[in-house]
Amino acid sequence: MQIIKNELLNEYVYHEKLHNNMDVFFMPKRGFTKKYAVLATNYGSNDLEFISPHTNEKIKVNEGIAHFLEHKMFEQPDGSNAFDDFAKIGANANAFTNFNMTAYLFSSTENFEEGLRHLISYVQEPYFTEENVEKEKGIIAQEIKMYDDNPDWKLFFNTLKAMYKVHANSIDIAGTVESIYKITPDELYSCYKTFYSPSNMALFVIGELDKDEVMNIVKSTVKDEFMFDGEIKRIEPLETDEIRQKEIIEQLDVSVPMFSIGYKDRAAVLGSKELMKKSIVTELILDILFKKGSQLYDKLYREGLVFGGISCDYTEHIDYGYTIISGETRDIEAVKHEIFSAIESAKIAGIDEADFERAKKKKIGSFIKSFDSIEFIANNYLSYYFKGMDILEYYEVLKSIEIEALNERLKEHFDNDMSVISIIMPKEDK
């Protein structure tokens, strides 16, 4: 068993690869009454084409199948629901699917050991029939239609659609009504047997627990049924270093226009620490230029150009990355001009040294404080792990960053040729 330590945080993680190649991580957290576990697979909505490890055939699946599969995993062969079994022992359970990961999780203050056995057991027991798959299609179709009317959701995905020509992250995680009605039990089993192999999964357990007891429960509960040798061969379309279109405008039921400016990363193959550094550097730039306390934020707020401030985030992955800057305004052109001007001015003048030091110290403080949340630790640890990174190295990478890296990234990433805008306008009165 490996021990991964971070001296600054005074935190350590036990890591063991089981006989079936599943990775198990355990972080002891003294003084916490709540315990938490998340079992995740390195599989999300982007994984639409792959080579079957069982037949060696190329398979292309329907959009939204990873999310559909997550929904179906709660239905048990005896007719019960996995959520109900958690509720009986006083545990809170949930699950989520994003572009690159599917996760099943629960927390409890009591009966944690029983909950952990249940978590591992039900995720290893898929049960798909023609009847229960057909039933689920109507439920998910309603969910898709609900999100189609959600302005924030549409604003976000229209930004991705404008940026990406072929990459699957421009496709709604839940798919479309048309695509999910094509899903079959055989297709679900094919995805499950490929991506839910123990070698593609990881479990993170955290809380005031005994390490040996946790590992005994895990080892006595995991199965080898869908274990196979070799790597999963994903087939990913080659995205170009160009955007699809400059602007997407849609009308929905909103009272104030909404905007989302996106900057698409050019393709680059990076190692894990380089990927982490790129992410942190971009986040620091966003903190300095756009977040509360910045010159731009104060100006937009003072002149009444934005409502509720500006939101800005950078998303990184092994094969894509993008920045999104969004908000609400009655004068989109004026706000767009101010944002672009702030970026161009920063490129010319460079990042202010005092702003850099302040943003860096603030990020260090936020990172340390985030370790008070066991949910944050567990979910982010696995998310980073699947991208080849270790979140416990975050502080060392952050500490090593110099201001020159921000100025280089400003010029490289915030390129007008790689920018798009998504706009949601109020519906016009008929």
TrEMBL record:
Domain Peptidase M16 C-terminal residue range list: 182-362
Coiled coil feature spans: none
A Pfam family of this chain: Peptidase_M16
GO molecular function, one term: metalloendopeptidase activity
InterPro entries linked: Metalloenz_LuxS/M16 (IPR011249), MPP/UQCRC_Complex (IPR050361), Pept_M16_N (IPR011765), Peptidase_M16_C (IPR007863)
Domain Peptidase M16 N-terminal: 62-175
Organism superkingdom: Bacteria
Listed EC numbers: 3.4.24.56
SUPFAM superfamilies: LuxS/MPP-like metallohydrolase (SSF63411)
Sorted UniProt keywords: Hydrolase
UniProt protein name: Insulysin, peptidase family M16 (Insulinase)
